[in-house]
Amino acid sequence: MASASEPQAWGADPDAPLVARCLRGEDEAWEALIKLHNRRVYSLCYRFTSSAEESQDLTQEVFLRVFRNLKNFNAGSGVFRVWLTSLTRNLLIDHYRRTRKEKLVDSIEDRLPTLESLSTPEAHPEGRTAGREAGEMLRAALAKISPELREAVILRDLEELDYREIAAVLRVPDGTVKSRISRGRAELARVLRKLGATL
Amino acid sequence: MQCPEFEIRLCDYLDGTLDRIPRQEVEQHAAGCAACAALLAEGRAVTAFFERTPAIEAPPDLATQILYRTQAARAAASRAGGGWRRWLQPLLAPRFVMGMAMTILSLSMFARVANVQIRQLQPADLSPAAVWTSVTGRVQQIWNQGAAVYENIRLFYQIATQLREAEADADEAAPAGGGGTSGDPRRIEPVPPPGASRTEPKR
Q1: CA B178, CA B176: separation in Å to the nearest integer?
Q2: Do A175 and A161 meet the contact criterion of CB atoms below 8 Å apart?
Q3: How many Å is the Cα radius of gyration of chain B?
Q4: Looking only at Cα atoms, what is the longest distance across chain A?
Q5: How far B46 CA sits from the closest chain A CA (Å)?
Q6: Are A189 and B46 a contacting pair at CB < 8 A?
Q7: More confident of the two residues A121 and B162
């Protein structure tokens, strides 16, 4: 089992040429980097905050940090995508700590009746799609499971990072990552069933 | 296989990346362990559920907003950039540099006049009495030098004047006497040393 602290041999970073051009001060490269990764960062922020407005602010903040710290990114020690995900995760943790009190008040239990009503067809005269309902239920269910399981599941199943990348982001061994993903999926399934989702 | 190992291998099992033997081991464990069997079933169900959920799309103008903010941050950084350079900018202005050069020149001239040896400067040299003595001594020396130069210049002009007068006298005498003493109108009579009695040439 590989330890997260062990140096890992990363393959070729597909973003490396773009990052190098950014470091040379090419505006076009910076714009391309933003266009390439803003959806991923926004999606990750949205999975954790469940708020479009907060996710936009956080995504902008992430890229500001990237802009200021890109010179500190060591291309030899990992791929840009992992570095970006780690940076996003750190920002989300800071954000979570800042807004923890609000989150406790606005907990999943408070919103549960609303979420349950989403799953019944008659509650949507405007005709929401099944995919959108599934997305809403998934968002609610993710908010219900423990943070360490949630982030492992999100990074693997929704952001599609590989296990080694997740291990680097979370700074835990690969085995721990896989264990958390398995337990997180099981917990998520239980919550989804509680919310009325058909699995 | 124990349950913790099953949890780890389950991911690879569901990804379909396990070889035949480890795959059979996972299946055998699930067949004999209800908790792990549930873990396997729920893992399958959730991954299938994920496929039904749409991907989260970022707002279309998000990239533009990010660009705007980073450009604003860059502009702010360049305005504030090089803090020490911003503070030194007035000092590097040509007018200030010229002023500083003139000040240094003036001070060095003053130091030369005051006979201040910068390299040998001691704290005692900076006492007011020492500075005053040095300045007055140097001024006296310069005054004496100036006075000597003035005396030399005065003597020179005195001699030159006498020569011109003698030349004029010779020019006046030449038409009356049919020529000068030597017959050369350009000849200048020797000037006697100061204090010697001056005798008029015989005509």
Answers
A1: 6
A2: no
A3: 54
A4: 57
A5: 6
A6: yes
A7: B162
